[in-house]
Amino acid sequence: MTSVELGDGTVRYLELDAEKMGYYFGDENRKTTFDCVWISEAMSHLPDKELFFRNTEAVLNLGGRLIIADWFRAEELTDSQMKTNIKPIEGVNDSGESNGMLLPELCTQSAYVKMARDAGFSVLADPLDISKQVSKTWDISWSLIQNPALWGIAFAQGRDGLAFLHAFKAMRRGYANGTFRYAVMVFQK
Q1: Can you give the pLDDT at residue 9?
Q2: CA dihedral 115, 79, 168, 127 (to 10 degrees)
């Protein structure tokens, strides 16, 4: 854990299992609450997002804020759009084989808002879609992974390694056609 003094407050950067933070901070010996929890590009990897929202609500002080910056699938996609643009990004295909970025099913922005409200949060700032601004990072990433040595390493890792690199192309395509989104949202306890 790293702490940084900022005026009258302290910022702590913690690396821990986000789904278990309620257990970790709820322990009698470590009872801790926070003014803010910030999670960036990690929630989409959590299999039990509802548990994360409940745990976060439990560790925030009254008036505390939860800030999320994450990847989403667009609302109301067709089966074809899901198969072509989203499934290559997600973790497991219909046959149960690992695939893509090893993500559980991607949620929509409205699904996060619903989970937050169900956990007791109010929406302090509606989701701000910044897909256009961050999509350039995937163009840069795609140019970087053109290195043949990187593909050699991926090949040595087998199907998972290759699927991971191919997911970059799917993310780039999803940003271009609007099926893959990036947003920031703020909730308050």
Answers
A1: 67
A2: -30
> DSSP string spanning 114-127?
HHHHHTT-EEEEEE
What is the helix (H) or strand (E) element at residue 66, kind and residue range? strand 60-73
Least confident of 25-34, 91-100, 112-121: 91-100
CA–CA gap between residue 6 and residue 70 (Å, rounded): 26
pTM exceeds 0.85 for this model: no
CA distance 69 to 85: 21
37, β-bridge pairs: 66
Strand blocks (E) in 116-173: 122-129
Output the six-digit token pair for 140.
Answer: 């840069």
Phi, psi of 126 (to 5 degrees): -55, 155
